[in-house]
Structures are given as structure tokens and as C-alpha cells.
Fold this protein.
Amino acid sequence: MDIITYKNFSWRYSGYKGWTLHNINLSIKKGEFIGIIGKIGSGRTTFCSSMLGLIPHFYPGTMQGEIIINGLNVKKSKIADLSKCVGLAFQSPANQLTGAGTTVEEELAFGLQNLGVPYEEMHKRVDDMLNLIGLEKFRKRSPFELSGGQQQKVAIASVLIMNPNILVLDEPTSQLDPLGTEQVFDLIKKLSKTGITIMISTNNVDYLSRFADRIILFDNKIVKIDTPKKILTDINLLKKHSLTHSNITEVSLRLKKMNLSKKELAIDFAELKKEIEEIMK
Ligand SMILES: Nc1ncnc2c1ncn2[C@@H]1O[C@H](COP(=O)(O)OP(=O)(O)O)[C@@H](O)[C@H]1O
Ligand SMILES: [Mg+2]
């Protein structure tokens, strides 16, 4: 069953001439892991905002077409209702963390408290989340004393604790160092096995090539939607959109340039290993 459907969706921010997103058609199945890539200004954040109904309800502008999220017609639904099935984690954890609680566990409990969830259940859900993100030890700490990666994990957990069917992540690691990035992608990998639908905007193709079922390349429209293999080894296509390929694909590319291999470009360790083994024979 499709959990996300876009039909001829276009969006223009008021006061701007062109369409920021033009004629988007899309069907996403429940449980899919979708990577969203594109250069700066290509409309990725706008697309993420449209899944939560921030477009068209919060930002002024003109919308055409239709978006159906988990059976809800976005145009006809309230953001409050959409946010019961869609959770959005922002680029910067500092924007996500409410600061309403003085500790990590209070931060996690915040949304549930607002819903009036009974204490026992709230406690259990907070424990489950702390366990999932591996931060039990830090439950009494202030979130703002944690590392960037840990803060982002708390921010994502504060969204997950509301049990959304769809998790939208807008460049969740763009402000993190390599260790923080790895911590967050470890969490995302765990989540991908839980059946939740994940829509993640990130140009970190090294991780996307490992996790994504499909990738959407945006440039104010959908340029291409296909498997990671098809999109992330198309060097010219990536270059045209100011994107780079993964380190593994780069090694594979160099093997070809050195005339050592004629195989198609590798996208993951397994493929690269095979390629190197054949060269060694
Ligand atoms: N709130 C807004 N009001 C007007 N224009 C916006 C707004 N947000 C983004 N834009 C414009 O829409 C285009 C796409 O932006 P955005 O969706 O943020 O792209 P990306 O996330 O891929 O960098 C840009 O030209 C940007 O300037
Ligand atoms: Mg953006």
C-alpha cells in the first residue's frame, strides 16, 4: 500500500516567480527507505515541509495538485492531525530540542506529557527510546551538555516517541562531525528495520548507498527516482547537480581509469571487494 502519494504537486512561495517544486509525482510504499538528494536550493527542505503540511498551511504560497499522506489529503488536513503520522527532524538539533525539560528524559517525555499520556506508559516509552539511542547513562543530563551527534539522537528520539508512521529527516547530519554522523546513521539503520517509512534528505551518499531502497534526485522537480546503484554511480548526472559520488565508487572509478577493470562501477564494499578480487586473479 502507498503511504505517500504526490499527484502533479507544484509549489510556489508567495512573492517568487518560478515553481520551487514543479509537477511532483510520487508513490512511496509503507516501510520504504527513501534518500532525497539535490544541490542547495533544489527544494529538498520544501519537499520535507510539504509532507508535514507546513506547505501549504504554514508558509504562504500557491499549491497545485494533491498530496496524500497516510490516507490524509494534506490540503484538507490540519498540521496537528498530520503530525500524528509524520515526524519531522530538523537539520539542527538545537532547533528541535524544546529546552522545556532540564534533562534528556524530560525532553523525551515532553511531547507525551502534552498529549496527556499516563505516567506509567510515558515512563516505558522514555526508557525504550533511551535504550534505542543508547543514552541511558545520560538520562539525567541536560541535552545541551551532550555532543552534537548525541543531541541529534535525542532530537530524533523526541520525534519517534510519538510513534509516527513516517519519519522525515532533513539533513540530520549536515552540522555534525564524522563521529556524530556515524552515530546518527547507526540509529537510522536500526530504525530502517522497524518498518517505519523513512524519508531522509542528505547528500551523504556513502551512507545512502548502503541503506536506501530508492533515491530521489531533486532540482526543483524530480530529475530521477531510482535505486542507489542507478543514481549514485551515474557520475555525470551527479556532477551536473553539484553532487559527489561515494568513496567506494571513487575507488572503483580509479580502477577503471587505470584500465585494471571493466566492470560497472561499484556502489558498496561487497561489489568493490569482488572487483578487486577479480583484478588480483
Ligand atoms: N520560506 C521560504 N520563503 C520563500 N522562499 C523560500 C522559503 N524557503 C525556501 N525558499 C526558496 O525555495 C528554494 C528551495 O529551497 P529549499 O527547499 O530550502 O532547498 P534545499 O533544502 O534543497 O536547499 C530556494 O530558492 C529558497 O530560496
Ligand atoms: Mg534544505
User: Anything to note?
Assistant: The mean pLDDT is 94. The first strand starts at residue 2 and ends at 13. The longest helix spans residues 119-133. The chain is about 40% helix and 20% strand.
